[in-house]
Every structure is written in structure tokens, then in C-alpha cells.
Amino acid sequence: MKFPKLMGVIHLPPLPGAPAAHGTHPAESLQAAGFQAVKEAKILSDAGFDGIILENFGDVPFYKTQVPPETIASMAIIAAAVRETTQCALGINVLRNDARAALAIAAVTGCDFIRVNVLSGVAATDQGMIEGDAAFLLRERDRLHAPVGILADVHVKHAVTFSSTHIDLAVEEVGSRALVDGVIVSGRTTGRLIELEALRSASQAARALKIPILLGSGASLDKLSEIKPWVDGMIVGSALRQGGLAGAPLDAKKVREFAKAYMKLDRVQSRKKRKRF
Prior knowledge:
It contains eight helices and eleven strands. With 277 residues, the protein is α/β, with parallel strands linked by helices. It has one domain (6-276): TIM Barrel. Strands 1-2-3-4-7-9-10-11 form an eight-stranded parallel β-barrel, surrounded by five helices. α1 (26-47) packs across α8, α2 (69-85) packs parallel to α3 and α5 packs parallel to α6 (196-209).
């Protein structure tokens, strides 16, 4: 499955029912989140990003594996609005790890893919122990007849993975045994970059399996040329926001600069690759 090369993350503000939305009417919370999502989707699309991920970033503290109905309803409405706004490939990430909800939202709104933090193995997270359930998720996708790609994190951020010490083995497990469509690697927390040695190991394992690998955190202009040869795409969040802070408003200038630098580097690398063959 082919995924977008350059994806921007829309960090949704608190949705109805979230603690940070306390005191606000649910309809008002939804409207504010929807307006922000549509606005940011236009900024990303106009700058040249070819993919967007919606995630309920403002809903801290996150439920571990099952969000309430109002969260699912809100994200579906917002996803449908963004889908009407842009031709970018659209993905859903329901934090912390409600893969079933993400799949349902993506299926009914015509989204292209979902992100699953823990699809395979066991991870100790700030929400507690989370176990992957690829067997259930892939069967649900078949039941829904939904052409939705599944991107899964390996050694996911904000967690310690117990089921695979080495990142290359984690990639092999999620690729060959969980049958994921693509893998995501990231640093230890939001906004932090993975160590280059680990990135290389993960990249080699993914390419041996012929599955895409994407960088999930820590992308920055100064590291772009060093990182890009090892990944098939990037998911960019904090680096595009004011002050470099996750959840802060998008900085349109940063968005344009990042997209321009990425596309320029992508053209250069493509020409070099063609010359080798």
C-alpha cells in the first residue's frame, strides 16, 4: 500500500467530554475543533503536504483502549468536514490506542488510513499496560469491507515495549505477523527524534519486508537530509507549530518552509536514484 510522503498532524483541541473542555457545551467544543481542523487542513494542503492525520490530542488524560461515544462521534464529524476540504490523503489516530474506533471513523468517512500506537506486542504506557490486537483489527477491517490502510508504531513513544527489545525485530514482528501496511518509528516522546542507529536498523528491516517506513516524531529542517534517506515518508507535528510545541497553533510560514525543503530534497534524491539504474 502506498502512503503519503509528507503528512501533517492536526492536534485537535479538547473534544466534548474531555476534562479540558469542562464547562463548555459539547456542541461548542465540537464546532471549535471542527473550525480549527478545516483551517489547518487548508494550510497543510496549500503548502504541499499530501497527507493529514487527525488525532484527539487535546483529550488528555487519554483513555487506554476505548474512548467514549462522544469522542467517536466528534472525530467522525470533523473527519467528514476535512474530507470535504482537501484532496490530501486523510488518516485517523484515536489516542491512546482505540484502533477499533479509528477504523470505524475512517471507514464511514472515507479516510485512507489509521495510525495504531500498539498493534503488536505489549507496552507499558502512561495509561497502563496496553496489548496489541492485530487479529481483531484486521478481521474488523475485512468485515467492514473498508479499504483503510493500517500504520502501526514500533517501540512507540511515551512507552516501554516489552515484547521486542530490538527495533528491527519489532518491525519484523509487526510486518510479518501482524500484517501491517506500514510502520512508524519515533523518539521516546512527542517531538523527539529517534536515534539514527535505531532508525537505520528499523529501515533495513522494513525494506527487507517491502513495507513502507515513516518517521513519526522529531522531524526538523536541520535534520531533514540526514533522516530522509532512511524513511519513505514523514509525519510532522510539533515542528510546524508555534514555538515548536505540540498542540499550539500551526505556523503557516513553518509549514511552507518545511514542505518546500522536503520536496526539494525529494527531487534531488529521486534524480540520484534514477542515475544509479
